[in-house]
Amino acid sequence: NAGVTQTPKFQVLKTGQSMTLQCAQDMNHNSMYWYRQDPGMGLRLIYYSASEGTTDKGEVPNGYNVSRLNKREFSLRLESAAPSQTSVYFCASRADRADTQYFGPGTRLTVL
Amino acid sequence: EDQVTQSPEALRLQEGESSSLNCSYTVSGLRGLFWYRQDPGKGPEFLFTLYSAGEEKEKERLKATLTKKESFLHITAPKPEDSATYLCAAENSGYALNFGKGTSLLVTP
What's the pLDDT score for residue A67? Predict the structure, then answer.
């Protein structure tokens, strides 16, 4: 089991460019999540998906879109990147009625 | 508004010097209190979940406890490999995780 995988590991964008962060899990989990982590701010939820075909906004959804492509994959899209979106992005997944979320290794994104 | 506060922000210990990290929370309908460990450049790694006041869980040199307003992560006789950032998160009735900012622990030989 690879667990939760994320691509790319690092990315540098210019302001206004778009990109999609990919996340996949092989644990057959229904729920998947996208967080961002900034210094001094802790982890904040961007979007989550409780099951295939459903998505919901978290605490900081502005400037992002998500797609739950299938049960395994949950992508995060930045349509027009801004310097304020410079952050480390983590994907996580969780089984129904399970204790915890399992996190991926993160994508470090810099927007110039 | 749900809130999770961790203290101290940073802690430096000598190897073998026991201490505790604090997590205070205000969450509507607490479902669970989670502790994670995060190493630099990596994703959070699950340690414990606590569900009710009075509950305790242990793993090696770590013990987590829960009261109605706080959780503590006790580290007994720490080793340098325990150096990491420890994150606390409270899950509300809507299944949303609210994370604290973390405590950065450094254990020196």
Answer: 96
